[in-house]
Every structure is written in C-alpha cells, then in structure tokens.
C-alpha cells in the first residue's frame, strides 16, 4: 500500500467524526479495531483498504472518547490542581494545562480556559500554580448557520472552561518563550502597531483591536494575521537560504540538497515553538516535514500525492482536527492552487520581467479568490469584493517586508545592538502603517450573502472544468444545464402556507423570529455587552443567511437582555418599525386591545393596560399570534402580579398552543393560573446554561410538565423552531433534530445552570 493510498484511507476514516450523531461505546471501537486487524493480517488483499480505513476510524473515535474523559473526571465538584500557564491576556483570561488533579498526575495534561480570573501575581507563560478551580464542560450557543463554538473547542482539544476560586504560586518564573515575549513587548512600547507586530511575530492576537480584525475581514486579508503556512514557510525559506549561503564556501563534494532542507525544517520548528505551537502552526510544520521527507525520498511525487500525505498525517496525529474549519480552509486553499495551476497554467507572453511578475500575482490572486468562494461563503457567510486588490499589495507587503523585518528585529533583540534593533522595529512599524492605511482607503468590500449562494459559488470550478475538458463543445446542453443548475436556489418558489417561530439561542436574553412568506417579524433582540450585542452577533447574520427580510420589531420591555441588539438591527435595516410599551420616540405603543395583521397572521396585544404605571418586567408587551387555528403567546418577562391582572382583564383571549416561558423560567413568573388559562401544549424558554440566576427554576419546569406542557429550552436544545402547518405543528431542536452531532451534545450533568 502506497503512502498516498494510506493517507486517503486515513482521511476517509476520520471524516465520519464530523457527521456522527453520537460516539459508539468503547467496546464497539475495540471490537471494530480487532476485526480490522484480523482481516488485514488474514483476510483477502481486496479488503486491506477497507481495513485500514476502519482502523483509522477506530483511532479517531478512541481519541474523541479520550478528549471527553476529563468532563466526567474533573467536573461536578471543585478541583485542587497544579497547572502551567500556556497563554494569558495578562489580566483575567488564561489558558492553562492541568498536570495534576487532587494529587494525581494526568498523562498528557488537560487544557482549560479560565475566564474572569485574576491571579495574585502577574501571569505569564510557563508559570506553575496551585489552583482551586470550578470547572465546567464546554458549552456554546447553537443556531443554524452560526459560529459553532463547541465544535471549535473540541477541535482544539479544549473541553473544559472554569474560574479560579483560590490561587497559590508554585513557581512564578516565566518560560523562556514567555520571558522573550515580555522583553520584546517592552522594547516595542511606544510603537503604534505594537500589537500587530506581536501577532505577526508570536501569534499573540488577544490584544489586536476589533477595528483591525474587522478591516482585515472586510478586505479578505485576515489570513495574513495567522501564524500558519505563509509565515512558517517564510522562516523555513530563511533557513534554506542560510544553508545555501553556507554551501557557497564549501567544496563541491560537500554540497547536497539535504542540508538546506534540514536547516529549513529546524528554522520552521523554532518559529512554530516561538509562535506558541498553536494547532494551525503545528499542522503547518507537520506538512512541511512531509514535504521535506518526500523531497529526501529520491522519487518524484505528484502535488496531489503530497497534498494527500500532508492531510492524512495531520488527521492521524490529531484526529479531532477534522472538526477544525481552519484545517479545511488551508487544505482547500492548497487544493485550489494545485487545481488552478494545473488547469489554468500561467503562460506570460511578455519579455518584461516586472510585467511577468505583476501578471503572475494577478493570476495567483484571481485563482485563489474565485476558487475559495464556496468555502468562504460556507464558513463566513459573505465575500470580500475588495480582496483581490487588497491581497495584491497586502500579501507582498506583509510577507516580503513586514514579517522579514519583524523576524530580523526578533533576532537582533538577542544581540547587543539596540540601535540597529530599534531602527528595524521602526521600519516594521512604518511598513504596517502604510499597509493598513492603504487597506483603510479601500471601500467597505464585505458583502454578506445568504445560503442560496453556496451553489452559485461553484461556478468557477465548473466553468474551468467545462472549458478544459471542452464539454461546452462535446456536450453543450449538458454543460449549460450543469452551470444553470447553480441558479436553481434563486428561482421563485410558491409561497408556503405555514409559518414558523424561531427562538434563537442568544444565551441569557430573548430573541424570537416569526417567519412567513420569506419575511420576518422580531420579538426582542437579545442582550448586549461591552463591545457587542446579540443583534450584530446572532440575529442579523441569521436573518441574512436564511434570506429573510425583517418588517418590524416588537420589544417587550426596556431591560438590556431583551433590547440589547435593537440598535444594531435598526442600523442594518433603517426605518424598521418598532412597537414597544416604553414610550420611546419613534416607537409605536403596545397596549391591551390593539390588534394588527402581518402576512396573514393576527397579532393581539394583551398587556400592558393603557396608562399602566408599572415598569420593568411587569410592563412587558404580551402578544398573542394566531393564524385562525394555531397560536403562540409571547410573554417577555411578565411576572406573577401582572399575570393575574392580565387574566382579570383579558382571560378569554389567553389560550395558545405554544407559550414563551415568562422571565426565562424564573420562580417569580409562570403562575398556575396563567398556565391553566393558556392550556397550551408546548413551553419554550430562552435561558443560558451557566447563568448567574440558576434559571430555569426546577419548580417552574415541574409546574409546566405537571400541567401537560412539553418543555424545551435553548440551553439544552440550542435554537428552537416551532413549525406550524395546516396539518398541525412540530418542534425542531438544533441539538437533537436540526443538526444532531456528537460534538453538539449537552456534556456533563443533565441539569446544570451554574
């Protein structure tokens, strides 16, 4: 079996980890591995590829179980541990490796991210601490098309987060890398682009401002900030160049191709360590090692064979890397380049060397821009219309000027040449200033698109294949049909008669979308926090990804966890009508007795009373929505006193099939009189798993269930969608139904709202 074939078996064997709804038991994995080994040794040759694939699958499943094991071992009670600091923002966020828990050594250590935790001494990488920790399993908000935090965390082997209850320093000495970074940071004080220099040099991106990140995202240059293939390959190229310069003074019999390759690998490995050995950097180093090994093998390898060997070695070394979007983005980018240069080779027809270089850059950037469209739309839900122009100057500027200057400064920092070092840092700082000022001069090129564009983005691939295979000549109708089929999602469709209520998973807060006929009505807009809000982070991307246009917003009351994203929503869709009980300028009132229609649905306001003097939760706008047969009651944060008053004035209109649980399931709401009068069948609650108020109340949940309601909450289910049709209704939950995956499970104890 050849290495490329083995690599292909490894890739195929690991891919089920992305789609399995649950992990099989350990006994099944052991049994499958033994059967595969037996057939591999004793079975027919025709089965060997299948046996190797099965072995790789068993290896990946075993590593998934191993990664999840600390959840059972370290959660449920406070843990006294010894831990080594790996990364830190210098304040409250730290990544540590637990090496000992309750006096027992942990083989390989367990990586944990600690939030909101100050340490008694200034933290830095390499310090060793005795910590009393409250640990909890990783948990993320889950919405269709949203960022999948749980999958991302598991792809990096991080299954626990926590906070520090008590800390005692065992060894406050920083690691060699930590001391070096701290020293370089002090040397860079006063430079405007210090944080970007540290990000490019060491991968320390925690302090890079959001404005810089957003600029690079909008211009399609965010890949330049990552310590990955480009920078590590550049370090390897420097090592290769140093070796070649050395060889110029050696006799001919001493000159060979091995020394430059080995020295380039050594330089790449040193830079990977210096950059914190983050997963993308380690994967790049592994790929460079495979490329060097193929070069030393003495045989000619096809680019696709090397590509397979690189991806195969990565997933064998780290099976959960198949969950990483960054791995597939890098792999897809390299595959796109191989495809582009094989199917659309660059053949300049000018003798002018500068023009050939310019044409070559345009050819390269055009290929990578066009062929990465499918993955860019799938991962980021948008495209950058200025990426081609931005990368034309940003890639050479940062790769050939800024990064070499930064690397030179890092080397000079080790030497007693402070004057030359400062001159190099100044040049690096000015080069970045010029690059980013040019990026800022470009128009805002980020274009958010919906999921229909995923198929249209395949047109460049299909068009190139049709042209090179001459399908447009041999089978023109088939080729035209194939290309035209990508437009199918854009064709108008008959209006659906049903409607859907989506409760988005926004943590502690509330955001619902009523969807009908491709239009949307919002009820509340989630929460807000320093530097962001649910509107910008969740609601707007969700609406655009699903090709929904909002036509109005109902805000239940003024508390920030219900109106936090309103400003962002109104900025995205200016002039959107808002209805609320707050009496704010531009808001239509929400008062008992009001009724209006939207897309054939009838909205009836049940609370508050006209002129009602109460404020806060008890002034929540309560709305009943019905289609004449089925109905939903939206209650905001109404509490028991207002519930009884509302029943007194409007009891005959309270019945509904579905109720949005008031006040996130707090014991101050959901009184028995309300539940009895509504007489519903489904209760949906918007709650965060680790909320400070331990919501929902166990008594409230039991009260609903005792009265015959089916209970669903976003902490357990993620996004909840209630679909109403002429034949009835159906509740769809993200974790169990919309996208059931083993990495979307609720990890840890069944009920946990710490």
UniProtKB/TrEMBL annotation:
The primary site where this protein sits is: membrane
Annotated membrane topology is:
Multi-pass membrane protein
Q: Which positions, given as ranges, span the membrane? A: 26-42, 49-72, 222-243, 255-274, 304-321, 327-346, 358-381, 393-415
Q: Where in the cell is it found?
A: Cell membrane
* GO cellular component entries: plasma membrane
Give every Metallo-beta-lactamase domain span. 508-689
The record's InterPro entries line, in alphabetical order, gives: ComA-like_MBL, ComEC_N, Competence_ComEC/Rec2, Competence_DNA_uptake, DUF4131, Metallo-B-lactamas, RibonucZ/Hydroxyglut_hydro
Keywords (alphabetical) are: Cell membrane, Membrane, Transmembrane, Transmembrane helix
Keyword Transmembrane recorded? yes
PANTHER family according to UniProt: DNA INTERNALIZATION/COMPETENCE PROTEIN COMEC/REC2, RECOMBINATION PROTEIN 2
In Swiss-Prot or TrEMBL terms, this protein is called ComEC family protein
Query: Which species does this protein come from?
Result: Siccibacter turicensis
């Amino acid at each position: 079996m050849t290495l490329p074939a083995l690599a292909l078996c490894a890739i195929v064997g690991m891919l089920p980890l992305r789609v399995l709804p649950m992990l099989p038991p350990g006994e099944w994995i052991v049994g499958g591995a033994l059967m595969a080994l037996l057939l591999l040794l004793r079975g027919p040759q025709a089965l060997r590829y299948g046996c190797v694939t099965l072995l790789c699958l068993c290896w990946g499943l075993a590593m998934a179980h191993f990664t999840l094991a600390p959840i059972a071992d370290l959660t449920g009670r406070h843990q006294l541990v010894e831990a080594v600091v790996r990364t830190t923002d210098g304040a409250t966020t730290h990544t540590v490796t637990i090496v000992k828990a309750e006096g027992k050594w942990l083989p390989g250590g367990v990586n944990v991210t600690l939030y909101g935790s100050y340490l008694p001494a200034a933290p830095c990488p390499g310090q060793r601490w005795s910590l009393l920790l409250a640990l909890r399993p990783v948990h993320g908000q889950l919405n269709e098309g949203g960022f999948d935090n749980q999958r991302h965390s598991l792809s990096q082997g991080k299954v626990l987060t926590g906070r520090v209850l008590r800390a005692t320093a065992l060894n406050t000495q920083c690691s060699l890398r930590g001391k070096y970074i701290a020293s370089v940071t002090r040397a860079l004080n006063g430079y405007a682009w210090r944080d970007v220099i540290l990000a490019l040099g060491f991968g320390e991106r925690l302090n890079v401002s959001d404005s810089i990140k957003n600029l690079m995202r909008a211009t399609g240059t965010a890949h330049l900030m990552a310590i990955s293939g480009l920078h590590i390959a550049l370090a390897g190229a420097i090592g290769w160049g140093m070796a070649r310069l050395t060889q110029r003074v050696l006799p001919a019999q001493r000159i060979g191709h091995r020394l430059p390759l080995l020295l380039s690998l050594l330089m790449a490995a040193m830079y990977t360590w210096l950059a914190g050995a983050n997963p993308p950097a380690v994967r790049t180093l592994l790929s460079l090692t495979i490329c060097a090994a193929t070069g030393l093998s003495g045989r000619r390898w096809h680019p696709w064979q090397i590509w397979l060997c690189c991806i195969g070695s990565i997933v064998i070394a780290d099976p959960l890397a198949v969950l990483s979007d960054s791995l597939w983005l890098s792999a897809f980018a390299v595959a796109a380049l191989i495809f582009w240069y094989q199917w659309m080779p660059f053949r300049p027809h000018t003798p002018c060397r500068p023009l050939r270089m310019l044409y070559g850059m345009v050819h390269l950037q055009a290929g990578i821009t066009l062929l990465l469209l499918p993955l860019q739309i799938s991962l980021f839900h948008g495209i950058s219309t200025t990426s081609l122009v931005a990368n034309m100057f940003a890639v050479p500027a940062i790769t050939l000027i800024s990064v070499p200057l930064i690397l030179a400064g890092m080397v000079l920092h080790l030497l007693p040449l402070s004057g030359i070092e400062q001159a190099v840092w100044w040049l690096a700082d000015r080069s970045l200033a010029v690059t980013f000022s040019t990026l800022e001069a470009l128009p805002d090129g980020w274009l958010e698109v919906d999921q229909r564009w995923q198929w249209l983005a395949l047109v460049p691939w299909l068009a190139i294949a049709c042209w090179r295979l001459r399908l447009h000549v041999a089978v023109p109708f088939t080729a035209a049909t194939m290309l035209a089929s990508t437009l199918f999602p854009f064709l108008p469709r008959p209006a659906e008669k049903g409607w859907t209520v989506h409760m988005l998973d926004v943590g502690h807060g509330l955001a619902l979308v009523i969807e009908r006929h491709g239009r949307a009505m919002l009820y509340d807009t989630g929460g807000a926090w320093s530097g962001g809000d649910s509107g910008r982070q969740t609601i707007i991307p969700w609406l655009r990804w699903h090709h929904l246009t909002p036509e109005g917003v109902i805000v239940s009351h003024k508390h920030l966890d219900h109106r936090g994203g309103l400003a962002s929503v109104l900025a995205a869709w200016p002039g959107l009508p808002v209805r609320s009980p707050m009496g704010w300028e531009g808001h239509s009132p929400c008062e008992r007795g009001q009724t209006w229609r939207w897309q054939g649905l009838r909205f009836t306001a049940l609370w508050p009373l006209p002129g009602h003097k109460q404020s806060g939760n008890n002034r929540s706008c309560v709305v009943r929505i019905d289609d004449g047969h089925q109905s939903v009651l939206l209650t905001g944060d109404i509490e028991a006193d207002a519930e009884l008053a509302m029943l007194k004035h409007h009891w005959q209109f309270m019945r509904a099939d579905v109720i949005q649980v008031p006040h996130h399931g707090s014991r101050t709401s959901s009184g028995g009189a309300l539940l009895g009068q509504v007489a519903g069948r489904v209760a949906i609650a918007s709650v965060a798993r680790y909320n400070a108020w331990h919501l929902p109340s166990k008594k409230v949940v039991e009260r609903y269930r005792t009265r015959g309601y089916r209970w669903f909450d976003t902490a357990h289910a993620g996004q909840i969608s209630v679909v109403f049709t002429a034949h009835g209704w159906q509740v769809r939950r993200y974790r169990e139904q919309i996208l059931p995956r083993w990495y979307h499970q609720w990890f840890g104890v069944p009920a946990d709202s710490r």
